[in-house]
Amino acid sequence: MAKIQDMTPDVMKTVVTPELLRESCQKFQKELLQMPFMVFQDQTAKYITVLPGIRNQLTFGELDGDAELGPWSKDGNHKDAEYEIKGRTLEVYPGNCSRDFDPMPLFHSIYGEALASGMNEISAGYVARKLVSLFAAKIGKHINDVIFVGGKRNKNGHTTADLFDSFDTIIEKEINSGEDLATGKGNLIHLGTIDKTNATEVLKEYYRSADPNLRGQKTFLYMSPEVYWAYVDDYQVRHGALPYNKEFEKVFLEGSQNKCEFAVLDNMAGSNFLKISTKPNFLLGTDIMGQENHVGIAKYKSWVITFEFASVYGAQIRTLSKEALHVGALDTNPDPANVTYNFTSFSADGNTQLATGVAKTTGKSLKFDGVKNVEIVFTQNSVEGWVGRKFYIISNASADGTTKYDLHDDKGNAIGVKVAITAAN
Predict the structure, then answer these.
(1) DSSP category for residue 413
(2) Residue 191 maps to which CATH number?
(3) Which of 101, 183, 266, 381 has its CA 20 to 30 A from that of 129?
(4) Tens of pLDDT along 296-321?
(5) Domain residue limits at 347
(6) Is residue 315 included in any domain, yes or no?
(7) CA 18/CA 131 separation, integer angstroms
């Protein structure tokens, strides 16, 4: 242990050797592998479940079926059960990184931090541990950044965003499949846009549309800071004079009987989905003690040292059941007027081409069964009599030219025509 004034960055360079850094990595291996979690333990980890012992993958089975009592009967009200066991798999993927670095700027940073904190003495071992911890913490920051938004598995990628699917990516894939996450399943509602003029009403509508079994539990409403700020601003305008409204900050959703707590997460910024669920339903898997894990220091080049880190991570939503999850899809393209698309129309079965032409949005929208549709008007049509006619198409329709979408009238009835759209030049 040396006096702080005697452990200058130049002295650190001579006593904090690559060998000492390697020893520090070995001695504190478990602590360093856990360091990524320490970065977000006070925010994200409060609202999700971290499973630290996942080897490759773990499948969670869910029984989906029904049974009920009836008045006493000699045959026991017997009938064959209709049920299925659905499995959702949490898979963890190996990832690694190596970073060459010049230790001198870090020595200066550690020295300045020690002075600022009033430390009187400092050891070479402390400096070594501090240095490798800095890099391990950066690993954690990048993992935290993509837990909810931005992560999409790409085995050929090079960033944390390529390592595993984030929760939003999982939700988006499930919505696109239309099988287990849909308005008809009772676990999805399209909310349109949220701003400081409507947030209170939209979130109230969202919560009340959730399954009663979910509303009966203690839940979290996972949201970005932007949505939360819109809510508190709107709430103050609407209810600022109420005698019980004594605080600007809100912890629970008004009207939920303090059962639905806000989970306001910085790493949900830009999310297209609100989520009402519970902590056990959002899973982040890793295997801290697995043989794939590694933290090390090496010296391969002159003047620089190499930091190495390897571990496994993955995310999954345990169940999409309406009793455990309710997703609110936000509209990121709010009712634009005069956006022009080329279209090709088809018969109801999508097999016969009917017409081609041009359509544009009018700025008007309606909801059919909770799903937002935008109004379009035909400005050109190869079939006589269709120019000027107005119909509705789902608001998140992809302009890829291949996906075919039903057109609806203003009552939400399908008119028996599908269209594929592309953006007009």
Answers:
(1) -
(2) 3.30.2320
(3) 266
(4) 776 656 656 777 888 899 999 999 99
(5) 337-423
(6) no
(7) 11
